[in-house]
Amino acid sequence: MLKKALESTLTTKESDELISAFDQIGDIIIVRIPDSLLSKKKIIGETLLNEIKVARSVFYQTSDVEGDFRTRNLEILAGEDNTETEYKEFGCKFFVDVENAFFSPRLSTERERIGNLVQDGEVITNMFAGVGMFSIMAAKKKKCTVYSLDINPAASKLCVKNIELNKLVGKVISINGDASKIIKEQLVDKSDRTLMLLPERSDEFLESAITTTKNGGMIHYYSHIHADKKSEAGKLSEEHYLQVTPVQSEILGSKIVRAIGPRYYQTVVDVKISK
After folding, report:
1. Predicted local confidence at residue 6, as pLDDT
2. What percentage of the chain reaches a pLDDT higher than 70?
3. Same domain, 257 and 144
4. 270 pLDDT exceeds 90?
5. What is the spatial distance between Cα 58 and Cα 272, in angstroms, rounded to a whole number?
6. What is the pLDDT averaged over residues 260-275?
7. Is it the case that residue 165 has pLDDT exceeding 70?
8. Domain that holds residue 25
9. In degrees, to the nearest 5, what angle opens at C-alpha 116 toward C-alphas 268 and 214?
10. What is the pLDDT of residues 88-137, one digit of tens each?
11. Residue of 40, 52, 51 whose CA lies nearest to 77
12. HEC letters along 212-250
């Protein structure tokens, strides 16, 4: 879609160089532009704003998501310079700040999958909750209690706002702070199900995930895996988990969540632990 919208602006060679995948979040578009096309970034932004009628703003992502707060730098290319928007997914509404709090529209399928796994009566620890999307989608469907943790105060504030925005049959409790400290002080052996949505640091926080999870409870362990063959990524992630876990674990399944680079994948392993 991006390439088609820019046919009149870029040569065939430039169009081939352009990263065609971009994120549309509510009325905001975030685009990644290769260095060779940065001289045309304003034209690209203005073309997108004109072509995509629901768009209010077009931003160029100038940095990766990084740091403890999981934020990224954005540069306005066209439209209104406002990084907050409303986003809808599977019957839920969310206020997001695409620059100052972690959010990815590319996890929508995984959010739905987890929401469908949750059962009435469960207690869930969402260790790196961002604006609370996994938490709220679970509590929208099931009479569960979700402890929604994030170290970024902007993310936690938006989570509170999103709790109020949606009619939930369950309960979401937003707690701002370091997940390891919160678990140690408040959530030992509390959780029937624990989400570890910080794949680049899952090994570091695995002990905390085990601490909050009850004997016989489930952990959804996300990681980043290199695999020469896509079909091998799930198996490799299972092997990695078994190498690093200190507790007896039954692997219930694994899958690729999304591709994040050439032969590089975000994966999830669903495990039942025995303590």
Report:
1. 75
2. 97
3. yes
4. yes
5. 43
6. 95
7. yes
8. 2-82
9. 65
10. 999 999 999 999 999 888 899 999 999 999 999 999 999 999 999 999 99
11. 40
12. HEEEEEEEEEEEEEECCCHHHHHHHHHHHHHHHCCCEEE
pTM of the full predicted structure?
0.92
| CATH number of the domain residue 10 falls in | 3.30.300.110
**CA-angle at 147, arms to 143 and 152, nearest 5°:** 140
Same domain, yes or no, for 110 and 146? yes
C-alpha pair distances (Å), 26 with each of 29, 48, 87, 219:
8, 14, 5, 31
CATH label of the domain that carries residue 164 = 3.40.50.150
Report the chain's mean pLDDT, rounded to a whole number.
Answer: 94
Is the same domain home to 123 and 48? no
Nearest CA to 172 out of 208, 112, 123 is that of: 123
Cα 236 from Cα 248, distance rounded (Å) = 18
Q: For residue 132, what is the DSSP state? A: T
Domain count, the chain: 2
For residue 1, pLDDT over 70 is answered with no
Share of the chain above pLDDT 90, in %: 83
* 45, 78 Cβ separation under 8 angstroms: yes
> 122 and 255, same structural domain?
yes
Q: Does any domain span residue 202?
A: yes
User: Do 121 and 233 fall into the same domain?
Assistant: yes
216 shares a domain with 115: yes
Integer CA distances (angstroms), 267 to 85, 126, 152, 200, in order: 28, 17, 24, 11
Task: Name the nearest CA neighbour of 266 among 109, 40, 79.
Answer: 109
Distance of CA 127 to the CA centre of its chain: 12
Token couple for 135:
């938490």
